[in-house]
UniProtKB/TrEMBL annotation:
UniProt keyword terms in alphabetical order: ANK repeat, Kinase, Repeat, Transferase
Keyword Signal found: no
One Pfam family recorded for the sequence: Ank_2
Spans of repeat ANK: 341-373, 549-581
PANTHER family: ANKYRIN REPEAT DOMAIN-CONTAINING PROTEIN 39-RELATED
Domain of life: Eukaryota
Keyword Phosphoprotein: no
GO molecular function: kinase activity
Stated name of the protein: Ankyrin repeat and protein kinase domain-containing protein 1 (Protein kinase PKK2) (Sugen kinase 288) (SgK288) (X-kinase)
PROSITE patterns per record: ANK_REP_REGION, ANK_REPEAT
Organism annotation: Durusdinium trenchii
Amino acid sequence: MPCQSPPVSALASYARSLRTRCPEAEASPMLLPMYTVPVRDLLDMAEMEPHEELKAKGLLVVFQRSLGNAAFVSHQWVGHEHPDPEFKQMRVLQAALKYAMSSSLKHIPLDIVTELLLPGAKDMPTSELVEKDLFIWYDYFSCPQLERKPKEGERSELSKAIESIPAYVAASAFFFVLCPVIENEHLSKVFSPSTWAQRGWCRLERACCELGQNQSWIMVKAPTSLELISCPSASMGSGPPGQGEFSLAEDRKKVAPVLTTLLKRKLLQLLQAQDFVSYRVLLNQQSVYLKGLGLHGSCYKPVPGFEEKITNLEEMDSTSCLVEEFLYQNGFNTVGQRDAGGWMPLHYAALSGDSSLIHGLLAKRANPNCKTTKDQPLVGLPPLTSALSICVFFRHYEATQCLISARASLSGGSTLCTPLIAAVIADSAEGVRLLCQARCDPHRRNLVGAAAFDTACAHGTIHAVEELLLQTGGRGLDMTLALNESLTHHGGSAELVKRLLDLRADVNDQTFTWWKPGFGMGLIAMQKNLQHKCGKRTLCSKLMYHGGHGGTPLMLAMLTYQYEAAACLIAEGARLDSRNSRGWTAKDFAAGQPVPDFLLEAFEGSSEGCCRVTSIALRNACVEL
């Protein structure tokens, strides 16, 4: 008897109907022309002038794809009423562009986290930057800055530019994150990659990039430090735009319509392309993107006809109805079905964080311990991830408690992303607390031997660090190892470094090896060392070759361009004359690198600048916490 094909889902049928034309799925509208500056003119700039002045001088070009490629620059303002009053930030971008477009750099390398978590990710040939003329979009000279206050009922040109951000990002071939360590003595602030990640507008720009055609971006931390980031887990704990920091409270309201329109358009585009896996991820991630915007219950449900399709809708209880609508919108026939992306309905429900939905799926015999079978780069999660790990990763606490009550495994088994590891990467103190209260072992290591505390330090998730210290009383934690781990990834803020040093971490430790975090990481290090010796050098191979053989915390900070952490280490007495087994000192890693003045001064014998930067950074951290 021939096998019958499964019935075509309403999702698949609707997707087919959109293939001819769907106006709502077309590109985001550009309400204000995309004003850019040709890269040759940008490289000649010596001061930062506003949009109106550059326009009057004829230096602005309305970008069209026929002209070449555009690069969108996301950055934080390092002045009060001016983005870059001392031209420090722009000078770094100029130098980085010259370096990237020179013949000496062949590829923009993957950042360390992406290289470790996504082995299939590729670096970017720098030839892509020079194959066409390049035009730069930067808010201060691309958006109106000096316009009069609009009359009641009028829309300002600036508001049109804000609503056009998704269109500007979509029109750009490259997305740069400009986030060097900048000290502003007048504001008594230190700006860094971690402060960029907290800004609401920067988060919106990052969301536009993630929801575009090319989800990768180029991070510029220093003139010769360019890193290609392809993994959301590598974006320094950056959360949803609505939970970011805004200078003006009313700016948060401006984000909501931009983001909801963008999400709807992207969902329809994915349906048109019949990319059902990416569609399911985004459909259920809407609640994450919209957190902090007061838009509860406003998630878009694209597939029409649910009420007409389900004939016995009136006979169902609310939970059963919720489950049926979820399966309908996601194109699943049963709760036990697994899609091409290796995920099951419970995983997508965990992504949405709907505790009632999870309860309903469990009531229909969904396995609370089912794991994904493939990695999901769109959310930065590896294979063998459980629904519980997904819940805590996205800070869905009611859903987390629901799965814990259903006896979901707290250990996660043999996997990279255990529930506790997921909680600390998300900087979720509440997630750590819920798991530990349910008797999750805080010292348990994951598949490659990484412990939760060390992972929290590696990612710089300070709230998770403090909660683990509270839950363990500091017992069984190696503070020196944690300090070194914080400097191998992107966790090296002055706040965390100082905290670990106060807990007796050794500022001049030279015993760190890649076997310490675990056997699995040691094997990875062996492979990266061999790769480095054979000439295939990456940021990760360089770090493992130099950092794990007598490297000090200061050397690790210099290798990973964590200059705020380096300043703190020097202020706390780090030795500058120590050598690793390769014969290198920390100063050698700065040779030929345009490092900040406070570090240059330290290497010449004066630590005053490092002490000042550290003091300011710590003072800012205390205010934020």
